[in-house]
Amino acid sequence: MGATAAVLVAGLVQAASEDPVIGTALSLSVPAKYRGLVEAAGKTCSEVSPNLLAALLTQESGFNPKAESPVGARGIAQFMPSTWETNGIDGNLDGKRDVWDPEDAIPSAAKYLCDISKEVKSVPGNKQNNMLAAYNAGSGAVIKAGGVPRIEETQNYVQSIGALVELADVPAGGKMTTAERAATVINAASDEIGTPYSWGGGNASGASTGSCCSPNGSSGKSIKGFDCSGLTLYAYAKVGINLPRTAAQQYAASEPVKPGEKRPGDLVFYGSSPASIHHVAIYVGSGYMIEAPRPGTSVRFSPIDSMSDLYAVARPVRHANKEI
Asked: Catalytic site residues?
C-alpha cells in the first residue's frame, strides 16, 4: 500500500529492540468523529491496538477519507483497489463495501493488519515492524527480505508509526520529560492537519479568523485557521510556553541549535537574517516538519528543504537559559 502522508515523528524515539508492548488506550490525537471507530477496530486482534491503528491512519491519509495517492491507493486507510477487493469488509453492515467510507475502511484496515500479521509471523525480527512493513510493501516483500525490506519509504513508514505509538501515552499532568513535551507539541499541531491557512489566524486557544493582509494581498478575515506562527504559538501553548506572535519574534525567543543537534519539537525558521525571518514550522524528525505554509493551503507535513532559505533551527525557551 502507498503511504500518502509525510513522515511524522521518526527519530523521536528509537525503535524498541524487542517486540513493543502494545497499549489498549487511545491517547493519540484522532478526529472526534473517528475515535469510536478506531477504539473498536483497534481491538480486532492482539497484534493491533487503537493507538497503532490511529498512528497508521495518520501516516496513511491524515484521517482524510477522500485521500487518493498518485498510484491509486484510496480512502482513509489507502487501500489499493486489488487489496480492497480481497480484504475490504462491510464494517457498518449497510450491505456494501465502500473503500471511501471510514466505517468500512477503518475496520478493514484493522482486519488486514491482523491477517498479514499471521502471514509474516515466522519472519525474524520485530513483529510489529514486520506487520507494518507488510501493510506498506506487501507480505511477500517482508518474507523475501526476512524482515523490513530495504526500501526507504517502507523503512520510514515503519519507523514513523512505531515512534507515534511509543509516544502515545503522554501524561495529562505533572512534570513532562523533554520527549513528552515534544510529543505534545507535535500531536497538537498534527491534529490541525487540513485546517486552512489564514493570514494572522491562530492563537493559544486554536484556530481563529485572521487579518488583512499578507504581502501578496491575501486576507484572513473570512478564514478560520492558522498562519505559520499562529500554529506554532498554539502548539507550544499546550506545554505552557507562550511564544510571541510573529515568526521573527519567535526566533528571538528561542535558542539556536547546531544542525546536527536538532530534535523533534524544535522550530525551523526561514529567511536571510533574524530581521527577515518570514516563516516558521515545527520539526518532526527525519527531515520533515509540520507547517501552515501560505494562503490557499492547509496545515500539512513538508520536507524542511521544501523552501530554499532555511535560516536556522531553534528551541523555544520558557525564560532565559531554561529550555523546554
From this structure: 60
